[in-house]
């Protein structure tokens, strides 16, 4: 199986450790991974800002670069959802895209549904607070959300539960948005920060030691608040935990 | 209605968030209701089936709306009601005024109707010398305060009991400093009772109109709609044309969904059915379009006509909960309002589709499965197409797109950016122009990008 690693632009530049952890993890699990270097950004910031014509060439590039692989794996639910669910606003009747959209996976989804991972040789003796990122939750259905009356499931949690020593923090609001929302974090700064601080307060009361999520963007926002407010919570992307990386001090 | 301070949601939301204690109180009041709704919806194993059925019935009705409206008119007329058609808010207001003037009405009581809010009926009638009293308790409170409702189901959810007490003290001469909810409710009840007895006509909204029977249903928790139209001889019911359902058999699906979604109750206290005028009286039904048929013709937004105005999307919306209904400067706030208002007036309401993190909670909570957050995303492009996006928003996206189409330029600029982030003095990074940094730290810039590390890794492997 030829797997392409799709690394979101901001992870490439600001969080290379997350991308490296994803690569390491996939390789540990015996996957042959390629990183097509022509990739940059999926175009989500443009489409989410209403600038569809600026997003279009990026969507076209994406299809060009990633077509031909058996699977495309990405450590970001939001970017995956952009490709899977929102490119059709931009690319009409594009046969290559229609094939590609079925081959793009968020990391946890790929591990659970395709690789069917049921063991990971990692010790993680921490109380983990899992932030369910909205696009992974409600657009990719990586877990059941509290709004729907359906049987409960949670793919990221299922993976974390494989680790030795892991404990989960019980949140009062298990799947509320952190307030990042892309450009929302800047254009609606007041609400965005109130939302983020509320999420962090929930993790503090639950005793979270390490806060994790499948989306680095939510974590970037939350980490920015945690650091400013000097809160005793460490932040790691789920790929870093699953790959057995050290908790940053 | 008090003057709207600003149509700009971020400005209003920023103002609201200045009082963090109040923001948290507002958030938790609404979350309390959201949790009640969760418990109620999960007590019905068939909940998701109900949602699917309701969504399909509404989709079907909207696809044949003209036929069903005619059927409704025929059956309602046969029951002795007079049906009026209004293409917009102005025509609606004129029709209502004409009916009232014909009967020399001086005082009316009105039960909650978002449609009459949408049409700004109160100020219009008051201008023509008619006293209008809103009889829903929440509506009455905001009416006394000369404020618009901040929520479509709980119009005074932004007010604490202390605020209500002060308002009642000023207008109803209740004891100053008496914050006891029972005392305040009883005072309002006595006051409203007088108004009910004096009224010459009653106006209600409509929750569901049934084509098959020509009847309609009004849901309230206070019984105020029934009281308002039982004494006077004239009943005017105002409804948006999307309130229709085809058959009486469909009603139970909607009644089970409505109250559970709205307030977490199994059903509203009163679900009153009206079939024709009371003895010796008149029943007028005003069917209002006011932009709805335009939505009917749009593939992107047709779904929003399914809305049954339960307000669940507001209660669940993390942005609404932390910015308050008034920040939307619109009759219908929250997720559904952020769709309906810009479609009517993109210039004034251009910030609303962006007052959203696209978290999708509204779509999953919606009892009729409106794809709210997807429509909000589509609307953002619509706002841009109508040239309502400032260059400060469009230009950075143009530049970013240019850069992202050139991987080498992107990698180079990424390096430059990271260099500055690492080396620039703090005051230059955390300046007034950086809204990220006001409350948050910037991410720490790593020395090298992933693509650089990957290239080195590949090289090392091939060297071995």
TrEMBL record, chain A:
GO terms for cellular component: cytosol. InterPro entries: Cys_rich_dom. GO terms for molecular function: oxidoreductase activity. Residues 3-83, 128-222 form the Cysteine-rich domain. PANTHER family: LACTATE UTILIZATION PROTEIN A, UNCHARACTERIZED PROTEIN YKGE. This is Fe-S oxidoreductase. It comes from Blastopirellula marina. The lineage of its organism: Bacteria, Pseudomonadati, Planctomycetota, Planctomycetia, Pirellulales.
From TrEMBL, chain B:
GO terms for molecular function: 4 iron, 4 sulfur cluster binding; metal ion binding. Residues 440-464 are annotated as: Disordered. It comes from the Bacteria. Pfam families: Fer4_8, LUD_dom. Coiled coil: none annotated. SUPFAM superfamilies: 4Fe-4S ferredoxins, NagB/RpiA/CoA transferase-like. One of its GO terms (biological process) is lactate metabolic process. Residues 298-327, 347-375 form the 4Fe-4S ferredoxin-type domain. Keywords: 4Fe-4S, Electron transport, Iron, Iron-sulfur, Metal-binding, Repeat, Transport. The keyword Ribosomal protein does not apply. InterPro entries: 4Fe4S_Fe-S-bd, 4Fe4S_Fe_S_CS, FTHF_cligase-like_sf, Helical_ferredxn, LUD_dom, LutB/LldF, NagB/RpiA_transferase-like. This is 4Fe-4S ferredoxin. It comes from Blastopirellula marina.
């Amino acid at each position: 199986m030829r797997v392409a690693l799709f690394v979101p632009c901001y992870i490439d530049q600001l969080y290379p450790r997350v991308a490296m952890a994803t690569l390491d993890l996939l390789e540990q699990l015996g996957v042959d991974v390629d990183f097509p270097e022509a990739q940059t950004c999926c175009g989500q910031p443009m489409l989410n800002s209403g600038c569809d014509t600026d997003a279009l060439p990026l969507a076209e590039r994406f299809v060009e670069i990633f077509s031909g692989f058996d699977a495309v794996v990405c450590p970001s639910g939001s970017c995956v959802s952009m490709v899977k669910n929102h490119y059709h606003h931009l690319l009409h009747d594009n046969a290559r895209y229609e094939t590609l959209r079925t081959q793009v996976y968020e990391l946890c989804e790929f591990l659970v549904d395709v690789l069917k991972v049921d063991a990971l040789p990692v010790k993680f003796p921490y109380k983990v607070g899992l932030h369910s990122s909205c696009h992974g939750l409600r657009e990719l259905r990586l877990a059941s959300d509290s709004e729907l009356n359906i049987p409960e499931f949670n793919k990221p949690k299922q993976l974390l539960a494989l680790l030795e020593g892991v404990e989960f923090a019980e949140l009062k609001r298990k799947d509320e948005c952190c307030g990042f929302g892309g450009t929302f974090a800047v254009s609606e700064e007041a609400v965005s920060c109130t939302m983020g601080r509320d999420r962090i307060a929930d993790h503090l009361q639950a005793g979270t030691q390490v806060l994790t999520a499948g989306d680095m963007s939510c974590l970037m926002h939350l980490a920015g608040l945690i650091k400013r407010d000097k809160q005793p919570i460490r932040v790691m992307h789920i790929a870093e935990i699953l790959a057995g990386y050290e908790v940053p001090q | 209605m008090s003057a709207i301070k600003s149509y700009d949601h971020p400005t209003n939301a920023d103002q609201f968030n200045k009082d963090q204690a109040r923001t948290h109180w507002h958030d938790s009041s609404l979350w309390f209701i959201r949790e009640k709704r969760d418990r109620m919806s999960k007590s019905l194993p068939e909940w998701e089936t109900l949602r699917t059925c309701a969504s399909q019935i509404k989709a079907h009705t909207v696809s044949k709306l003209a036929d069903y409206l005619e059927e409704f008119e025929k059956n309602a007329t046969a029951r002795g009601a007079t049906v009026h058609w209004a293409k917009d808010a102005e025509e609606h207001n004129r029709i209502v005024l004409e009916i009232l003037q014909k009967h020399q009405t001086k005082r009316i009581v009105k039960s909650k109707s978002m449609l009459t809010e949408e049409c700004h009926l109160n100020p219009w009638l008051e201008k023509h010398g008619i006293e209008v009293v809103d009889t829903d308790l929440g509506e009455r409170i905001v009416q006394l305060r000369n404020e618009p409702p901040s929520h479509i189901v709980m119009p005074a959810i932004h007010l604490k009991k202390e605020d209500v007490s002060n308002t009642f003290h000023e207008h109803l001469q209740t004891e100053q400093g008496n914050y006891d909810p029972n005392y305040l409710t009883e005072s309002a009840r006595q006051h409203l009772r007088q108004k009910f007895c004096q009224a010459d006509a009653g106006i209600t909204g409509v929750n569901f109109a049934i084509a098959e029977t020509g009847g309609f249903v009004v849901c309230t928790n206070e019984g105020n709609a029934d009281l308002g139209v039982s004494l006077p001889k004239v009943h005017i019911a105002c409804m948006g044309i999307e309130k229709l359902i085809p058959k009486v058999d469909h009603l139970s699906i909607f009644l089970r969904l409505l109250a559970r979604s709205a307030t977490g109750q199994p059903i509203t206290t009163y679900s009153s059915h009206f079939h024709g005028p009371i003895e010796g009286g008149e029943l007028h039904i005003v069917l209002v379009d006011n932009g709805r048929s335009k939505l009917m013709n749009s593939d992107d937004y047709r779904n929003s006509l399914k809305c049954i105005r339960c307000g669940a999307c507001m209660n669940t919306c993390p942005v609404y909960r932390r910015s308050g209904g008034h920040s939307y400067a619109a009759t219908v706030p929250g997720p559904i309002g952020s769709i309906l208002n810009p479609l009517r007036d993109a210039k004034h309401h251009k910030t609303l589709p962006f007052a959203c993190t696209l978290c999708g909670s509204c779509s999953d909570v919606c009892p009729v499965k409106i794809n709210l957050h997807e429509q909000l995303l589509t609307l953002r492009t619509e706002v841009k197409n109508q040239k309502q996006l400032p260059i400060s928003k469009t230009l950075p996206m143009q530049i970013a797109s240019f850069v992202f189409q050139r991987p080498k330029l992107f990698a180079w600029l990424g390096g430059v950016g990271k260099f500055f982030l690492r080396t620039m003095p703090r005051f230059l990074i955390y300046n007034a122009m950086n809204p990220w940094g006001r409350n948050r730290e910037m991410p720490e810039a790593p020395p090298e990008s992933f693509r650089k590390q990957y290239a080195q890794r590949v090289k090392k492997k091939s060297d071995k």
